Amino acid sequence: MTGVLTLWALGGWMAERMFGMVRRALIIERELAFDPTLMLATLQNLLSGALLTLMPLFLVLLIAAVGAPIALGGLVFSSKALGFKFGRLNPLEGIKRMFSVHGLAEMLKAMLKAALVGGVGSMVLWSQKDHLFDLMAEPLEVGMSDFADTVIFTAVLIAASLGFLALLDVPFQLWQYHRRLRMTKEEVKQEYKEQEGDPQLKGRIRSVQRQMARNRMMAAVPKADVVVTNPTHFSVALKYDAEKMGAPVVVAKGRGELALKIREIAQEHEVPMLEAPPLARALYTHCELEDAIPTQLYTAVAEVMAYVYQLNQWMSQGGVKPTQPSELPVPEGMDPGVPEE
């Protein structure tokens, strides 16, 4: 289409220049007939003039040939494609590319293009055969102009036929392009691993982190002031420093086997333990490690800490052994209840 528009816009100028070159070529001077060097120089001048005449058409076609793919898919430059690969010299790989779906599609398109251009050209020549022979009887100026009209008419038909082929080819090219951009399942998995990390490695890291946190927690149990327990399920270790803390802090907590381990360490280091199931469940449910206890449990924990101080004083000074507190005031809704086995 670009070529047709260029011929239509510059056809008169090109025809005039070609007419002048043909007229000069048909004038044979006596010196040219006897001097081969002058004949070669004249031929060179004629060819140079013809090339300069066609240069605008070639330049516009070059711009269209480069611009059309850029408009369709964007400008992509890759130096990798310029590299030399020995695999390209492998005839088996070449045969595979030739007989692939893409290769067969390109071959089919080439055959359709050749059939369209050849068919349109043959049709024009057959329909204009009488007119083309009549050009020989016309004056040169008229014949050249008439011939230029025939060329443009033929180019219009060829462009229209190739345009019809492009209407079929462009959607196929876009579909094939986006299809190639799709990733396989393995590529998706690999990309996920690269972006999110290997799930196995992440699981291992989390396991190590949990183990390190558990070790730090267990190391804090000997320094606790008291361990509040539910005999079969929970253990929560509390520590309180009146100079540094506004309220007691949970330094360790566990359920099941971890609760048993906390009790074992507390017993080994002579940390006081108090059996208070509702309070133990409430502390385990509503407190995180290194967090102060909630205000709703201040009263119950205060009784526990008072008992611990009295117990420590009795152990160091003797006297009357303090009574272990019972029915600690745990607000309704704080105790989640006895868990299922």
Describe the structure.
The chain has 341 residues and is mainly α. The chain has two domains: 1-64 and 94-182, no CATH class; 214-317, 3-Layer(aba) Sandwich (name from scop), CATH 3.40.1690. The chain contains twelve helices and four strands. The chain has a four-stranded mixed beta sheet, with helices on both faces. α1 runs antiparallel to α7 (140-181) and α5 (101-127) packs antiparallel against α7 (140-181). The longest helix has 42 residues, at 140-181. The radius of gyration is 47 Å and the shape is rod-shaped. The relative contact order is 0.06. The model has no long low-confidence stretch (mean pLDDT 79).
Q: Give the overall pLDDT as a whole number.
A: 79
Net shape: rod-shaped
**In whole angstroms, how far apart are the ends?**
82 Å
Spatial order of the strands in the main sheet?
3-2-1-4
Main sheet overview: 4 strands, mixed
Rg over alpha carbons: 47 Å
Number of helices: 12
Number of domains: 2
E-strand count: 4
Approximately how much beta-strand content do the residues carry? 5-15%
Q: What's the order of the H and E elements? A: HHHHHHHHHEEEHEHH
Helix content: 55-70%
Structure class: mainly alpha
Unreliably modeled segments: none
Draw up the topology in text.
Layout (H helix, E strand, L loop, with lengths): L1 H25 L3 H5 L1 H38 L17 H8 L2 H27 L1 H6 L5 H42 L3 H12 L2 H22 L5 E4 L4 E6 L9 E7 L1 H12 L4 E3 L1 H10 L11 H20 L24
Parallel strand pairs: 1-4
Antiparallel strand pairs: 1-2, 2-3
Helix pairs in contact: 1-3, 1-7, 5-7
